[in-house]
Design goal:
With 265 residues, the protein is of the alpha+beta class. Helix content is 20%, strand content 33%. The protein has 6 helices and 12 strands. The protein starts with 8 loop residues before the first strand and ends in an 8-residue tail after the last helix.
Length: 265
């Protein structure tokens, strides 16, 4: 008999929407890219609430943190419009290679697949799309871990605020400024990722969506949904002595909050 899956941590729940703390490694929904996967955040949330849920945005499979679903199609449409018009304010935390500048803006277009009609058929082409990310460095560390080019290894803890929502935007933008996110097997450096695994034991992408700020689709009230860092991410923070540098809502681990925390605001 197979073991029951751990319940997802619920960050916010009312009669119109639900937000969960998505674990790293969990797809939002079925994807042809990962045909072998059998567990998805959408289905798990649906089964946990015993009602249908509707996706309004997405997180990459290796990214953890705040994932929002609507509980009916009308609310889904309203929330999706907020995301598409860049009205939702998003905060992420990341650990990156090297010493990131104190703060700045990355304004660098990203090629995205755009569907268009050609001879009465839908085609796909890659088109540069505007992509903007604000960032703020929170902490630095230098570790005595030699690589092929340096006798030590430097890392930064960074808060990221994407203004747009392009696919893999934060991962691609951090690579663009030569500070790839640790654990990124697609846009990062395999040598640095291996070095990090050997010295910290962390194998995950060190990127987490820690906060969403939006308008409630029914009441219009300001709504802030926050996710604590999950244990594997927080363990690295502790190894580097960075806990005091974290935003307060990111300091409490998933375990200490319980696996099924529910908050209504």
């Amino acid at each position: 008999m197979s073991a029951q899956p751990q319940p997802l941590q619920i960050l916010y729940l009312d009669e119109h929407l639900v937000a969960i703390n998505k674990p790293s490694g969990l797809l939002v929904h079925r994807s042809p890219v990962d045909r072998h996967e059998e567990r998805f955040a959408l289905q798990l949330t649906r089964d946990q609430l015993n009602q249908r849920v509707y996706p309004v945005h997405r997180l990459d499979k290796p990214t953890s943190g705040v994932l929002l679903f609507a509980l009916n199609p009308e609310v889904a449409k309203s929330l999706a419009q907020q995301f598409e018009s860049s009205q939702v304010r998003k905060q992420y935390l990341a650990i990156t290679r090297g010493y990131v500048p104190l703060g700045g803006i990355i304004d660098h277009p990203i090629n995205q697949a755009i569907m268009f009609k050609h001879e009465k058929k839908l085609r796909e082409r890659m088109t540069p799309q505007t992509a903007v990310t604000f960032f703020h460095r929170l902490a630095l560390t230098e570790q005595p871990w030699p690589s092929s080019k340096h006798i030590t290894s430097r890392y930064s803890l960074v808060a990221l605020y994407p203004k747009t929502g392009r696919q893999h935007q934060l991962r691609r933008h951090m690579k663009h400024i030569s500070h790839p996110i640790i654990g990124d097997t697609r846009y990062g450096k395999s040598e640095h990722n291996k070095l990090f695994i050997e010295n910290t034991g962390s194998r995950r992408l060190l990127l987490a969506a820690t906060q969403l700020k939006l308008w409630h689709p029914l009441t219009g009230a300001d709504l802030t949904i926050e996710a604590p860092l999950q244990d594997a991410f927080l363990d690295v923070i502790r190894q580097f002595g960075w806990e005091a540098c974290l935003p307060l809502h990111s300091r409490i681990s998933k375990t200490s909050m319980g696996d099924n925390q529910s908050t209504t605001r």
